[in-house]
Write a structure and sequence with these properties.
Elements lengths: L7 E2 L4 E2 L6 E2 L3 E2 L4 E2 L4 E2 L4 E2 L4 E2 L4 E2 L3 E3 L4 E2 L4 E2 L25 E3 L4 E2 L4 E2 L4 E2 L4 E2 L4 E2 L7 E5 L2 E6 L2
Parallel strand pairs: 1-4, 2-5, 3-6, 4-7, 5-8, 6-9, 7-10, 8-11, 10-13, 11-14, 12-15, 13-16, 14-17, 15-18, 17-19
Antiparallel strand pairs: 19-20
Amino acid sequence: MPITSTVRLGRNVAIHHPDLVNLYGCTVGDDTRIGAFVEIQKNSTIGSLCKISSHTFICEGVTIEDEVFVGHGVTFVNDRYPRATANGGHLQSEADWACILTLVQRGASLGSGATILCGVTIGEGAIVGAGSVVTRDVPARTIAAGNPARVLRRIL
């Protein structure tokens, strides 16, 4: 059951190899394409006309607006201080942590292998270079790359 009944799919969503994706509790907008080996978790939203490339992980709390390109193997993070156990030594549950939200604005592009830490906004039309680690906001219409990602220049 890789695509659960809790998923809201828009019109003309193309899921390549639906037996090789894991979607639950999320919303995907019209005309979006999703590649193989993608996981999109609950309480995340993908806009319309997006391309989510293979081997990508979109965790709870991520909002991706319309017309966004997500390259192969992009990973989102929603916890600044992840731990296996909570105080008292029991395995953590949802009650033991707070999801930190992330926003990718309209028309942005995320290069393959990028890691997007929680709590950031990637601005409209911005480009994140392949393999970058985004630790802070990326302004609209800029190119950011590196580890940590830094703004290299504006896009005219």
